[in-house]
């Protein structure tokens, strides 16, 4: 089909004339998602490590729930966060709906289970190796969590990247809680959805290429950083 | 160790959060329809209003039904939608303070150029819908409680047809653009507002087959969310917007908006 | 509070019916090096883990000099010590983390210990790139730094070359002279004769002999011990 290759050809022309509006959307995407992933890192990784190390009843159930939440459709998260932040909802008084903060909250809800589940797996594997030695040195569970998080920092960068990938590429949640407001809450994915709905497929593809390149660059950067540091401490 | 990382993270988080919430000047949230947003109307008229008033209008584009729900929950300050019957009951139930006419555009029936149902030869919009149903030609419906969907259902009812569940009736459950993409993809008929169609680029084999019947006129109204029900509504700023869009200056801006040289929206004098 | 004399009475460990420790009776004084010998599967490692508090015995009693078990006073070095993915200095000071020692003090104490075990010049190297002998010395220093009263060593020199073995033994003797009681297992009978004050001979989960080292090798009382000594040593040791 001519339409297919033509759309891609036009997409590259559009990328060539990368305009200020697209740049603003890209920067907003990065800002919202990286903030969500920062919070997700601070919450999700220790949470996953605690699940791996802690000895408490319901530990298996908690692990299953976290794993299940990993696959939560972003639209569902969007609806739940929408209801919570709505003026008629429990957190309505803060007036956060249709702001970037709402998008950050929704993305935090999306990435925390993903990051916690990966962290749990990684930390649990390490813990099996270290368990006796740390117990003999009389490590309590919190010190164990801290040491293991530090020790698994290279593998855990995968969790951070996975979180960033999910945050930047999801559309359902930010569309609902952000509202895709021009110059306020429009990010790359909602812009792609909008352009697709306008039938402007080349522009949608162009934005999609930007998104892909961005995620690839972030991954490549993290990989380079990892290999240089790992050469010292693996 | 881990705590060191945290110590560095927290200020970074605080800074970033502050950067996100900075927004100069006053702003209101307007829940509106995909048809107005997709046409590019807001992109043209809102900068004019913002320049005159200093108020930024944040548009959340939804279907009319969803926009009314958002209004009911108090998540917008004003609505600009197109389903007069529902708008009036919205105000009557106390969710809206009042409603004012703003403008109208019209619907067009688009379909495959070959026109298997012979819609192009119809004399009225009712007849066009009857022909589609009688020939069993594929029809893509918004099926999303939007104003366009409500209008489409009125036509089926007027000609005594119930397309629900028929094999030729594709309920997309999505916005105008997605429904047009579907129609283009499978060669179906659909009802579109003129603005969305004019701005739609992925037409493939689709073209306008029927237009101009007064039955296809599509009036838009603006509603102020009732501050008595939702005290946080930015009444003063929202009323400035409503006053402007129903004023001569607002009407001029609407009339001036053209897409490919064609005027899409026509101002309506307030009642 | 003193942990000694440490008395084990009828200590058993039967995880799944099979007895790994089958009524261990043993009294340990607070001085010197006690070497636990015995064939594979005799229960040597399990005995050490039980004393470390890592394995709760299924029967019997442990009497720590009349007082309660103090986990902070008991340290253990494992056959295959784990190195964190970090520097040598981070690894040596690891045991001070749960003891609430601040980062600066950990570094200072760690440097002093590295000096003592001869790894000071490797402080900032990757601990996982040390040789096997160096890692074992690091593991010893790591536990030594926590100043235990009882130090448990599980096969500390298995699979090390002779010069590395000698370096480890030198550190073990140093720890002994500081007044730390050492209980260790080994397969190396030469090492036992070099280090041990007394020998505990374990077979089938029971203590068969607990005698001074000379006596054990010159006049083993049990047939099992005689067989063990002859099987492990191709030459005859005379004292």
TrEMBL record, chain A:
GO terms for cellular component: plasma membrane. It comes from the Bacteria. Keywords: Membrane, Transmembrane, Transmembrane helix. GO terms for biological process: transmembrane transport. SUPFAM superfamilies: MetI-like. InterPro entries: ABC_perm_TupB-like, MetI-like, MetI-like_sf. Residues 26-222 form the ABC transmembrane type-1 domain. It is a multi-pass membrane protein. It is found in: Cell membrane. CDD domains: TM_PBP2. The keyword Membrane applies. The chain crosses the membrane at residues 30-52, 64-85, 97-119, 156-181, 201-225. This is ABC transporter permease. It comes from Denitromonas iodatirespirans.
UniProtKB/TrEMBL annotation, chain B:
Residues 1-24 form the signal peptide. Keywords: Signal. It comes from the Bacteria. Residues 29-248 form the PBP domain. InterPro entries: ABC-Tungstate_binding, PBP_domain. This is Extracellular solute-binding protein. It comes from Denitromonas iodatirespirans.
Automatic annotation (TrEMBL), chain C:
This is Phosphate ABC transporter ATP-binding protein. PROSITE patterns: ABC_TRANSPORTER_1, ABC_TRANSPORTER_2. One of its GO terms (biological process) is phosphate ion transmembrane transport. Keywords: ATP-binding, Cell membrane, Membrane, Nucleotide-binding, Phosphate transport, Transport. It is a peripheral membrane protein. It comes from Denitromonas iodatirespirans. It is found in: Cell membrane. SUPFAM superfamilies: P-loop containing nucleoside triphosphate hydrolases. Residues 6-229 form the ABC transporter domain. GO terms for molecular function: ATP binding; ATP hydrolysis activity; phosphate transmembrane transporter activity. GO terms for cellular component: plasma membrane. The keyword Nucleotide-binding applies. Pfam families: ABC_tran. PANTHER family: AMINO ACID IMPORT ATP-BINDING PROTEIN (PTHR43166), GLUTAMATE_ASPARTATE IMPORT ATP-BINDING PROTEIN GLTL (PTHR43166:SF9). Belongs to the ABC transporter superfamily.
């Amino acid at each position: 089909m001519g339409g297919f290759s033509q759309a891609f050809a036009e997409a590259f022309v559009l990328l060539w004339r990368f305009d200020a509006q697209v740049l603003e959307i890209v920067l907003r995407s990065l800002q919202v998602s990286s903030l969500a992933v920062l919070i997700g890192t601070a919450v999700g990784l220790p949470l996953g490590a605690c699940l791996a190390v802690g000895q408490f009843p319901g530990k298996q159930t908690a692990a299953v729930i976290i794993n299940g939440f990993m696959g939560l459709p972003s639209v569902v998260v969007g609806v739940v966060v929408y209801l919570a932040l709505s003026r008629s909802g429990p957190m309505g008084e803060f007036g956060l709906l249709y702001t970037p903060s709402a998008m950050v909250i929704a993305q935090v809800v999306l990435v925390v289970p993903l990051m916690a589940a990966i962290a749990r797996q990684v930390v649990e594997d390490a813990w099996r190796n270290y368990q006796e030695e740390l117990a003999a040195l009389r490590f309590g569970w919190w010190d164990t969590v801290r040491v293991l998080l530090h020790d698994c920092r290279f593998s855990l960068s995968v969790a951070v990247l996975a979180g960033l990938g999910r945050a930047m590429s999801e559309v359902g949640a930010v569309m609902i809680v952000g509202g895709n407001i021009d110059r306020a809450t429009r990010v790359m994915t909602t812009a792609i959805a909008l352009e697709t709905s306008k039938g402007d497929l080349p522009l949608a593809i162009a934005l999609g290429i930007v998104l892909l390149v961005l995620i690839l660059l972030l991954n490549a950067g993290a990989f380079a950083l990892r290999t240089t540091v790992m050469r010292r401490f693996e | 160790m881990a705590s060191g990382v945290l110590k560095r993270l927290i200020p970074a988080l605080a800074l970033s959060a502050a950067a996100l919430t900075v927004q100069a000047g006053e702003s209101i949230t307007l829940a509106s329809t995909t048809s107005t947003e997709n046409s590019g109307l807001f992109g043209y008229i809102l900068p004019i209003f913002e320049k005159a008033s200093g108020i930024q209008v944040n548009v959340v584009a939804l279907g009319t039904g969803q926009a009314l729900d958002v209004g009911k929950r108090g998540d917008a300050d004003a609505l600009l939608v197109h389903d007069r019957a529902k708008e009036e009951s919205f105000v009557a139930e106390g969710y809206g303070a009042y409603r004012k006419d703003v403008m109208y555009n019209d619907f067009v029936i688009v379909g495959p150029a070959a026109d298997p149902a012979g819609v192009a030869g119809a004399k009225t919009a009712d007849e066009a819908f009857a022909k589609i149903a009688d020939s069993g030609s594929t029809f893509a419906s918004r099926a999303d409680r939007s104003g366009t969907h409500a209008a489409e259902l009125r036509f089926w009812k007027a000609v005594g047809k119930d397309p629900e569940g028929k094999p030729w009736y594709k309920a997309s459950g999505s916005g105008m653009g997605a429904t047009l993409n579907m129609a283009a993809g499978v060669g179906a008929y659909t009802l579109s507002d003129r603005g969305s169609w004019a701005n739609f680029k992925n037409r493939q084999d689709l073209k306008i087959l029927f237009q101009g019947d007064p039955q296809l006129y599509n009036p838009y109204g603006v509603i102020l969310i009732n501050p008595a029900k939702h005290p946080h509504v930015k009444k003063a700023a929202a009323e400035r917007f409503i006053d402007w869009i129903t004023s001569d200056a607002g009407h001029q801006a609407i009339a001036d908006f053209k897409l490919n040289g064609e005027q899409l929206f026509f101002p309506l004098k307030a009642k | 509070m003193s942990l000694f004399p440490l008395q084990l009475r009828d200590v058993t460990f039967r995880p799944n019916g099979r007895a790994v420790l089958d009524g261990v009776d043993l009294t340990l004084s607070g001085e010197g090096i006690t070497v636990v010998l015995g064939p594979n599967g005799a229960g040597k490692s399990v005995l050490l883990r039980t004393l470390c508090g890592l394995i709760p015995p299924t029967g019997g009693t442990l009497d720590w000099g009349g007082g309660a078990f103090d986990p902070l006073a008991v340290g253990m070095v494992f056959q295959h010590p784990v190195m964190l993915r970090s520097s040598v200095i981070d690894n040596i000071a690891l045991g001070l983390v749960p003891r609430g020692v601040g980062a600066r003090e950990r570094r200072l104490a760690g440097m002093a210990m590295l000096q003592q075990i001869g790894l000071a010049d490797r402080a900032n190297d990757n601990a996982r790139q040390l040789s096997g002998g160096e890692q074992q010395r690091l593991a010893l220093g790591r536990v030594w730094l926590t100043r235990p009263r009882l130090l448990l060593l599980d096969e500390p020199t298995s699979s090390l070359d002779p010069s590395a073995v000698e370096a480890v033994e030198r550190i073990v003797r140093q720890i002994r002279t500081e007044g730390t009681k050492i209980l260790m297992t080994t397969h190396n009978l030469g090492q036992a004769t070099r280090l041990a004050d007394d020998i505990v001979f374990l077979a089938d989960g029971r203590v068969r002999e607990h005698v001074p080292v000379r006596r054990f090798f010159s006049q083993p009382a049990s047939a099992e011990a005689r067989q063990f000594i002859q099987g492990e040593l191709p030459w005859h040791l005379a004292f």
